[in-house]
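Q: What residues go here?
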């Protein structure tokens, strides 16, 4: 969303995510809900000093479900929550970028031209991996530092610290260049009635087999554990949440990617799963398996949907398209490396026929990869539609989604329901 927001609000309360995930915080101020990581700030001790009723100025960015990601907070009584600035300079990150590119290019060149043994290959692979990590880190830092959004947020912080609090009267500011369609778009509404996520007439034939029940109460005895399943390439990391609701024990497993944990919150469109002790919640439970399929938090009005069985949502289909696009780009990059390595080995400068051969090879490989990936995606689409039409699990999935949407609408929120893996 191309918006930044500035607020002048009374502080209400602060909550920690389930222990030991205390870095993740939820802040309620006025009628608004904010999420943030305490590690974002240079002096997080300010969070401990805030009291109900304190006046706070907040710079934030809106998320899809109507909540906000907090990027800074100014308290006239207790001090400022300011973003960490160490290591964010352009010069430092440009040097890091140059070094990472040199590591990647040199390791690839040595691997294909000067490889002398297994140990050398392992060392070059380690150098290549470290170079990729540094490359991603430096590119992200440069994007954040030079982002229009971050510049507007930091400019707002400077003005608030200088005493110019009038900017908070407008609350939302559209970034320059925002299109008219983006100005009027309402998150969630455009995806509410798609084929995969909407209740269809044929879903009612599965009504007797849905076995859904509701549990309403307060979260107690909350804790979480990080663990993983599988190993190597099949490893999947997760956070397991344990809690009681109305005296009944429940667990909720939320898978996450360790590769994306370091993504800067500036790129978040939705907030990670959050649950705190004493939160009033509505649970939708699959009685057959005794597992939670939907959770609505009455305190912050967040709705979470846990996919069950073979059910596939439109959000998952979109993710598959993005993943396969990434695979295509990686495969093309590898092909370019192989082809240009062969071109490099030619004695003398390459002539017109060499470049034509390169273009023909790249074009042919691109066409082949596109045909393979398109075939796989077509098969996925067909299987998805068949499952959607004939599976009781898919019907249960959409009924739970609609129940969560109704809970959000009843409380004046938009129709965005967050899916957790």
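A:
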């Amino acid at each position: 969303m191309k918006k930044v927001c500035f607020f002048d609000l009374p502080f209400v309360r602060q909550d920690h995510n389930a222990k030991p995930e205390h870095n993740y915080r939820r802040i309620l101020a006025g009628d608004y809900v904010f999420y943030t990581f305490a590690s974002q700030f240079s002096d997080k001790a300010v969070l401990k000093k805030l009291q109900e009723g304190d006046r706070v100025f907040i710079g934030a960015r809106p998320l899809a479900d109507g909540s906000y990601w907090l990027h800074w907070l100014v308290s006239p009584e207790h001090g400022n929550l300011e973003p960490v600035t160490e290591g964010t300079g352009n010069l430092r990150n440009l040097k890091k970028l140059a070094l990472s590119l040199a590591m990647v290019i040199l390791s690839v060149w040595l691997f294909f031209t000067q490889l002398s043994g297994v140990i050398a290959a392992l060392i070059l692979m380690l150098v290549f991996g470290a170079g990729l990590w540094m490359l991603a880190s430096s590119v992200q830092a440069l994007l954040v530092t030079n982002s229009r959004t971050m510049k507007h947020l930091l400019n707002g912080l400077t003005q608030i610290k200088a005493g110019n609090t009038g900017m908070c009267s407008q609350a939302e500011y559209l970034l320059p260049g925002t299109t008219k369609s983006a100005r009027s778009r309402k998150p969630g509404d455009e995806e509410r009635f798609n084929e995969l996520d909407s209740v269809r007439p044929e879903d009612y034939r599965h009504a007797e087999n849905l076995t859904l029940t509701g549990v309403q109460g307060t979260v107690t005895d909350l804790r979480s554990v990080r663990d993983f399943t599988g190993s190597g390439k099949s490893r999947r990391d997760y956070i397991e949440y344990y809690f009681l609701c109305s005296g009944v024990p429940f667990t909720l497993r939320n898978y996450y990617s360790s590769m994306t944990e370091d993504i800067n919150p500036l790129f978040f469109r939705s907030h990670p799963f959050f649950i705190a002790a004493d939160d009033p919640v509505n649970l939708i439970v699959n009685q057959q398996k005794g597992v939670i399929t939907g959770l609505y938090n009455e305190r912050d009005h967040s709705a979470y949907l846990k996919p069950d069985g073979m059910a596939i949502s439109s959000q998952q289909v979109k993710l598959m398209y993005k993943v396969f696009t990434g695979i295509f780009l990686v495969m093309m990059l590898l092909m370019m490396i192989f082809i240009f390595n062969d071109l490099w080995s030619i004695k003398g400068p390459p002539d017109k026929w060499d470049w034509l051969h390169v273009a023909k090879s790249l074009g042919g490989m691109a066409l082949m990869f596109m045909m393979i990936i398109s075939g796989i995606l077509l098969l996925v689409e067909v299987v998805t539609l068949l499952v959607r039409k004939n599976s009781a699990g898919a019907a249960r999935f959409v009924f739970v989604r609609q129940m969560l949407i109704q809970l959000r609408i009843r409380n004046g929120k938009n129709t965005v329901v967050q899916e957790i893996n």
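A: Context that may help when evaluating the design: The mean pLDDT is 85. The two ends are 23 Å apart (CA to CA).
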